[in-house]
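Quick illustration for those who missed Monday's session on complexes.
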Amino acid sequence: MTAKLTFRDKEFTVKHGMTIRDAIIKCDLSPEAVLPVINGELVTDDRYLKPDDVIKLVPVISGG
Amino acid sequence: MKCRKCDAKAVINMRQHRLALCRDHFIEWIVESTARFIEKYDMFTLDDRVLVAVSGGKDSLALWDVLYKLGYHADGLYINLGIDGGFGYSKTSLQKIEQFMSTRSDLHLEVVDVPAVYGAPVNVAAEATSHGAGKPCSICGLTKRHIMNRVAREGGYDVVATGHNLDDEAAVLLGNTLRWQIGYLTRQGPVLPASEDGLVRKVKPFCRFYERETAAYSLLSGIDYVEDECPYAVGARTIYHKEILNQMEEHSRGAKLQFYLTFLQAKEQGIFQAADDSVELTPCSKCGQPTTAAGYCAFCRLWDKVRED
Ligand code: SF4
Ligand SMILES: [Zn+2]
Ligand SMILES: [Zn+2]
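Prediction with zinc ion bound:
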């Protein structure tokens, strides 16, 4: 069973049981550069992924 | 993870402060910290008239919201750059600002429409210069600074506030340090004082918040902001520097904050004083704004050229 992370138009599938922070790093993203949202609610990244979780990673970096 | 101040579930953990907070306490923390920074750096008072540069992005709308909550007299300034980028970047930005204002009473917005007033969108203007084709950022920056100062002077504002966050400041600092650009380093900081020759005071009340905190504040406050970047920001050097700093932060919490704060400390101790060769400014003979150039300022020269072509 797996959980899903979405970032902009990308989608990543990861094993459940790890923390969101570890999952973000595993997907080659920076935990500093995104905010994890589950069902519209902001969550801290120490939360463990449950099977079938869908995490939206909101990008926070802007430039220019 | 639980909120440090109550027993509710934390929505954000700020590792550099070892501080996790719930929604309400986080919002309160941002508002109170902003008030503290404004006071600490002597930015402005409740009697001052503040002009907030709003772009429709998360930082500037969050800043306007916080200043509004704190009871400051803060008007907005939106500069329509005329950038489309295939998704109506500038148009969407203004819509987000108007939406923001519709749910808060008594907010006033000044709008300057660059194509209508000066004759072309900034990206088209950039094509008229030798170094700006395809890379409008330096011309865009010049144009925005000029307009902010003009509107602030004409409107009798005491200070211009921008939404720069710590990641913005640390990235610029990294860029300036890698090239030891002493002139820029001397002027970088939470406050750029007014000059006698007509530059209005500029301040950055959010300069100690991480970018993810200003984003979280906007999300949690229900502020709808433009998530899509200006199309020209893609590949910008600032973003590259932010990524490097975030890698450092991942390995050592607080690295970004330390980098910026120790810089400010070093500056206070005077390490850049010898280099402070403040140049004299004279009024541009066309628009009257202060400039280092004799005759027309860089802004007037640029836009005259754009209209000639
Ligand atoms: S990315 Fe460049 S062109 Fe776009 S708004 Fe920022 S400075 Fe202007
Ligand atoms: Zn709380
Ligand atoms: Zn001029």
